[in-house]
Each structure stands twice: as structure tokens, then as C-alpha cells.
Amino acid sequence: MLRAAASAAAAGALASGCDPHRDEDRGPARATGPSPSPVGREPHRPAHAARPPTRVPGLPVQIENGPREARAVALTFHGRGDPKLATALLGEAERASARVTVLVVGDWLDAQPQMARRILDGGHELGNHTLHHRDICALPAADAYAEITGCADRLRRLTGTIGSWFRPSQTRRATDLVTQLARKAGYPHVLSYDVDSLDANDPGAPAVRRTVLDAVRPGSVVSLHLGHAGTVAALPPILDGLRRRGLRAVTTTELVT
After folding, report:
1. Interval 141-167: pLDDT, tens
2. Which PROSITE patterns does this chain map to (predicted)?
3. Cα→Cα distances 119→137, 158, 190, 191, Å
4. How far is CA 141 from CA 175, 221, 243, in A?
């Protein structure tokens, strides 16, 4: 079952962002159509409009967290991996009336275009996590810009906007150059985070839960990943732990505006 803990942890922990060696980063999983919920047929959901890029006057260009007086946090998911696991995770969030932000990889949308609408129809938020999930801060300017705009183009084609946020790939923080390129592409802010769940290393659901709940604070932006069974299993206890502290899981735009 998806609520069971994932297999033993992979060696080492990635402290600076997405792990480029994880299976989910080698290429998008392919499927022939939308995947059913593991607990049954997906209920009909009303259509939700995609939000344009979020602009918050007074906030820095690179955002790591929201206001600390907020009684909310933003759970943000790097968007790639098995669409069945992604659908299961979204279902867990919705059962707890939580809303999340998914930063999608463009070539995943090429293989799983239905996931853009599935995310939006759940009331969640979409953003840009580059086209191919390359080490964007190490790329020449032209290649880095193509990574940003390539994903933006896919989001625009599928949803009508380029997404609410841009998050750079394989790094926690963008360089000045990548920040400038993101703004040129239409993103006023670059979305970082202050809590790294380390779930991409598959340490198991209990470890993911502990890592998040030990570090989270009011206003935190938490980095998590789609495509990992341990993350799906960890989400309900994470949401329960937040609720016990009087914290709600909201989209990043809701957190900072």
C-alpha cells in the first residue's frame, strides 16, 4: 500500500536541492492516459483556472519563506515521476483540505500532459521547474534561458499561463544570472525553500515526516517531490502534525500574499 513506508534510505543526503541521480530525474515516466486513484475512481472536480506569475511588491526576488506570523506553510513539490504516485499524493492532500504548489519539469508534461489539469482541478498551484531538470546554474546563459522558457511554453500551451512560480533545478538557490533570466522569462520571483525534506533520497516515510516536522515553522516553504511512495505515505502524518500546531498547508501564493 502507498501508506506503507518506502524501502530503506539511499546512502547520503542531498542538502542543496534535487538529486540529479534519482531515477525520477533521468527521464519522465510514460503512461497511456490519466491514472486512477488508488482508492477508487476520482470524483468529478470543478475546473480551476491557472494563475499567472505571482508578484508581491516588497518581497525579495528570491523567496525562501513566507511571513513568520502566518499560521500556514507551503508544501512545494518538484514535479516529476510516476503519475500514479502523483495522483495518489494529490488525493491525500485533498482529503485533508490541503493545497500544494507543484513545480513541474517540462519534459514530464510532454509525457503526462493530463497532470497539469489534474493539479489545477484539485485547487493546487502550478509552477516551472525547467524543461529537462539540468544543473541550470552551471549552464551558459542561452541554455539556461531555454530551460526556463521551454517549460514555460508547455505550461502556457496546457493551462494558458506560464505558471505562478519558477524554481531552479538541482539547486536550492539561483545565481544572479538565473534570477535575471527568470525575470526576463516573466517570473518576478524565484522560489527557494527553507525546509528540505530530503525525500528524494527515499529514507522512508517516518524519516520524511520527522525531517519536515522537526524543521518546519510558521511561514515555511517545504521542498518535497512527486514520484516517491515514501512521500505519499508521509504526507498524511505531516499534515496531521501541522494541524496539531495550528498550521494550514496552503499554496505558495496564498502564503505570501
Report:
1. 999 999 999 999 999 999 999 999 999
2. NODB, PROKAR_LIPOPROTEIN
3. 28, 12, 21, 18
4. 11, 27, 43
